[in-house]
Amino acid sequence: MEFTDREVWTIIHGMGFGAVFLLAFAGGLAELYGMRPEWMTAEGMQTRVRRMKTGLWIMVIAVWLTVISGTFIVYPWYRAAPPEGTSDLSAYPRSLLLSDPTTAGWHRFGMEWKEHVGWLAPIAATVVAAVLTYYGPEIARRVGERRVVAIFFIVAFLTAAAAGAFGAFITKAAPVY
Amino acid sequence: MATQVPLKTEAPVQVSLPNGPAAAALLAGGIGAAVLGIVTTLAAASEAVADLLRWSQAVGPLSGKVGVTIIVYLVSWAILYFAWRGKNVNFNTVATVSFILLAIGLLGTFPPFFDLFAPE
Lengths: 177, 120
Prior knowledge:
The complex is a heterodimer of chains A (177) and B (120). Chain A is an all-alpha fold and 177 residues long. Chain A contains six helices and no strands. Chain A starts with a helix and ends with a helix. The relative contact order of chain A is 0.17. Chain B has one domain (20-117). Chain B has helices at 20-45, 47-52, 61-84, 91-108, 111-114. Classes of the chains: A mainly alpha (177), B mainly alpha (120). Chain A binds chain B through residues 37-42, 44-45, 67, 71-72, 75-76, 79-80, 108-109, 112-113, 115-117, 119-120, 123-124, 126-127, 130-131, 134-135, 137-138, 140-142, 144-145, 148, 151-152, 155, 159, and chain B through 8-17, 19, 21-22, 25-26, 28-29, 32-33, 36, 40, 56, 58-60, 62-63, 65-66, 69, 73, 91-92, 95, 98-99, 102, 105-106, 109-112.
């Protein structure tokens, strides 16, 4: 049982950084939803905001590392062009997928969407962390701001989830060895 | 006689911070998202644009798309922050514009949309 260097990087990218962000989302959303002054004491609010700031910035770092490692480390292996005359395309996932009409959609839709939409996640997540860090406990009384931040947070999750899901499907169809 | 103890007290948090810096972060996020959608669509529509965005041969045009996006995102955030710090802005308007920009980002990065502009 062993992993190649490329497999290790795909695991770090998807099951490491990416999973941290996706798994932490539910907790973050629950914390944000519960951030209402009528539900909490002042002390509870301070504790919750401190915990949420820490959690959010960990998520932000994780999702930035996910897209950076995916784009600049794993993606070049995926899109590498095979030398002229290569018949075994198993080491060239993009070419392998495009060589068969039944799998070409994984690249033309799946990968093309994943490689772009994934980058919206860190931007949206950074907005959430920045606004919450700026307001601190005051966000509890800022109903409008809290709602806007929640929508950005959900967009960050959905875009990361779409990218992650297609990453898993594509890796199954044409792994990066 | 038993003393009544309140189960909870309302957090004494006052709305006092100007909303400018938060609005700046929000709008910059929208701008970043929209830029990604626009450059993605432009690269699909024009091979010349795609070549310009090929900052890394290994990564291809995606390197330039995300590079331009991050630069515009961070620069716009810095400009808006310094323009709006210490000020209150119309947050609802900023939020509406940010959502529209975010929608442009989502649309522009969706393959069935940007493929409409791809040359035959």
